[in-house]
Design goal:
Helix content is 62%, strand content 7%. The chain has helices at 21-42, 50-75, 96-114, 118-123, 126-143, 170-190, 197-216, 230-256, and strands at residues 2-4, 10-13, 18-20, 156-158, 166-167, 224-225, 228-229. The chain has a 3-stranded mixed beta sheet, with no helix packed on it. A hairpin with a 4-residue loop joins strand 2 and strand 3.
Length: 257
Amino acid sequence: MIFHHSLDPIAFDLGFFEIRWYGIFYAISFLLAFFWLQNLVKNRLIDFTKKQIEDLVFAVILGVIVGGRVGYFLFYNFENLFSLELFKIWHGGMSFHGGLIGVLISVFWLAKKWRKSFLAISDVLVIPAAIGLFFGRIGNFMNGELFGRSTGGEWGVVFPRTDELPRFPSQLFEAAKNLIIAGILFLTFQKKPRTGILSFLFLTFYGSSRILVEFFWREPLDGFIFAIPRGAFFSLPVLAAGVLGLIFLNFKRARRM
């Protein structure tokens, strides 16, 4: 069965201002992160004050937006990095890898300020991060962007603004794998793992699954680096950091036994 994409990316058109579904999903993601962290504090599952949670959410929002926007131009649209286009966020263009770097910088700064463990802070963020990435990919599907390769079959999604070919709904594939990652991390969280396990599991699962989607289902619109789809290439260090982090934690644990 072939589905013709006719979804309107604009949720509300006020005439002088448009509210897009993509922005709404971003707002929902940040709100869910705030409520998740507040609930952890309320149930004394983490040692943070309410003020620290507010500062953490603000820093994460700043890191995601600034890092994601700058990262998009740095990794995918470098020729316009130093133009006014950088500030026209309504034109779209965000990068996960840039957002990740932005959040890491924010967490590092807060960890130093609060004299807390960097990994202890990042551990409480990865579950809402995975859920936020789920909503982000739903937003990409609503926009009809970042679509998949041609299926060559009798099923798929046609994105009329691009062509009439049935394509893999790779945005939904990525949304699904991000939701699965969130579920795995939540089950792991309930077992009270050692500090850092959740953070490195997130990097491992996200990096590996993103590479898989990029190679088999997503249209390589951004080109290749060394014959590797650009998104997959930038996910290699994410995967490597996750795997090496898990190995280091296990080695550290083994030395203590």
